[in-house]
Amino acid sequence: MYTSIIRPILFKFDPEKVHHFTFSVLKNGLKLPFVSSVLAKKYAVNDKRLEREVFGLNFKNPVGLAAGFDKNAMLYKEMDQLGFGFIEIGTLTPKPQDGNPKKRLFRLQEDAGIINRMGFNNEGVEAAVKRLKENNGQVLIGGNIGKNKVTPNENAVDDYKICFEALFPYVDYFVVNVSSPNTPNLRALQDKEPLKHLLHSLQTLNAEKEKSKPILLKIAPDLTESQLLDIIEIVDETKIAGVIATNTTISREDLTSDNKEEMGGLSGKPLTSRSTEVIKFLADKSNRSFPIIGVGGIHSAKDALEKLEAGASLVQLYTGFVYEGPKLIKEINEAILKS
């Protein structure tokens, strides 16, 4: 029903407006008990065999919602009811920011992709904290953190620290986002020395807590093999919990859509192979010494299984969820049970 009726209608309208409309429908519709129970019955797969323990956390299933969809922690309970095993909010910054000028979100329907140049638009970390206080540990939450656009790179660590401290009581794990292509100079923080400094700084804060929490690094798919080897070394040196592979790409290789040259990060099917290659490279070269969350171009159960076989412990959806709908969550979990 979603791909045959709902999606063709939604795709006739501006993608950012559709995103907000969908939020409103889900938020209000799932308040009705019968709607909530019907959707949970239709899409959620509850089976002990799907449970995973990864970096010390217990996941009810290995299929999560990637950061970017629920930036401001407005819909994490509703997304949980659709069958996701965990929800990653953000990217959050210390101060609210509008992000880049509109239009900034583009569907590439011929390529089953999306280009975005949102620019970390969010209401600020404190607004998210207010909503997360309502969770009470019911939904497993990841907090994806970044820096404000106006913060120079030499002061970026301070922004990440602010977000870390504010979110610490309310999220289960953290994701350090230095790989978005839509904040000027952000990807420079992926360079070896700045990245080590940032992660060491956060790990120092983490060690001061009564009980530390997993910190993961989200990396770009555009890194070279040499840079990926640096990532493995950095994970080992800083003792962070793992890696999320991968963020969106700046590559435009083999695209056919008319709007393929729009600036921003590309996600969806064009990223499927590359993100899996990165997962496999990291897993093989590190001897699977740290967990990897696989994300990028998962539009089918087969795509998810390939990432798990390549070395991912968990997977996340975003663009595939937009194109295929909530049935994709169920299909992946059912395929995992059969594999």
TrEMBL record:
It holds the Pfam family DHO_dh. GO terms for molecular function: dihydroorotate dehydrogenase (quinone) activity. Binds 1 FMN per subunit. Pathway: Pyrimidine metabolism; UMP biosynthesis via de novo pathway; orotate from (S)-dihydroorotate (quinone route): step 1/1. Residues 50-337 form the Dihydroorotate dehydrogenase catalytic domain. It catalyses: (S)-dihydroorotate + a quinone = orotate + a quinol. Keywords: Cell membrane, Flavoprotein, FMN, Membrane, Oxidoreductase, Pyrimidine biosynthesis. The active site is at residue 180. Signal peptide: none annotated. InterPro entries: Aldolase_TIM, DHO_dehydrogenase, Dihydroorotate_DH_1_2, Dihydroorotate_DH_2, Dihydroorotate_DH_cat, Dihydroorotate_DH_CS. It is a peripheral membrane protein. Its EC number is 1.3.5.2. It comes from the Bacteria. FMN binds at residues 67-71, 91, 144, 177, 218, 246, 268, 297, 318-319. The keyword Cell membrane applies. Substrate binds at residues 71, 116-120, 177, 182, 247-248. It is found in: Cell membrane; Membrane. Its cofactor is FMN. It is an enzyme of class 1 (oxidoreductase). Monomer. Belongs to the dihydroorotate dehydrogenase family. Type 2 subfamily. Catalyzes the conversion of dihydroorotate to orotate with quinone as electron acceptor. This is Dihydroorotate dehydrogenase (quinone). It comes from Mesonia profundi.
